[in-house]
């Protein structure tokens, strides 16, 4: 019975550590692509306007949630932890606990390694809509949008907003 309670405490401790480290994993200073802030009310998808400012910002990679590094690290950690747990305790419970701890540690390490290079160069585009309200959108810099351009604000199926140059040839100089 003592081995079961020790295993439970070990698993609970590992889960709490994983939750704590995941919360700390957010890269400070980076933005998620999409609408950053807006003085506009309601929906802005489908609106158009003029680019009034552009500034460079770091953007998080498009991966959200678990990545390949998380799964690979978790798998390798589980295998290694189970082997070490079984070898040191000579029991199945030790192998299970070692595997769980190894999986959590490996997943955290894999996520950290995978996300270390996931910050990309982006821009925050401030658009003054035709109704006068402003919206700032963080997006990847593909060189398409320039100061003063007429743009359309589109939203993809995931709800991520993006300013796209208006190619209709309409110039609203005001």
Structural commentary:
- This protein has helices at residues 2-24, 68-89, 92-115; strands at residues 34-38, 48-59, 120-129, 134-140, 150-155, 161-165.
- Helix content is 40%, strand content 26%.
- It has a 6-stranded antiparallel sheet, with no helix packed on it.
- The longest helix is centred in the middle third of the chain and has 24 residues, at 92-115.
- Mean pLDDT is 74; it is low at 22-28.
In summary, what is this structure?
The chain is an alpha+beta fold. The protein has 3 helices and 6 strands, in the order αββααββββ.
The residue-averaged pLDDT reads 74
CATH C-level category of the largest domain? Mainly Beta
**What's the order of the H and E elements?**
HEEHHEEEE
Described by strand count, sense and barrel closure, the largest sheet is: 6 strands, antiparallel
Protein structure class:
alpha+beta
Which strands sit side by side, in order, in the main sheet?
1-4-3-2-5-6
Total beta strand runs: 6
Within the CATH hierarchy, at the fold level, what is the topology of the largest domain? OB fold (Dihydrolipoamide Acetyltransferase, E2P)
The geometry reads as rod-shaped
Count the domains: 2
**What is the count of helical runs?**
3
In terms of DSSP E residues, the strand content is: 25-35%
Can you name the CATH architecture of the largest domain? Beta Barrel
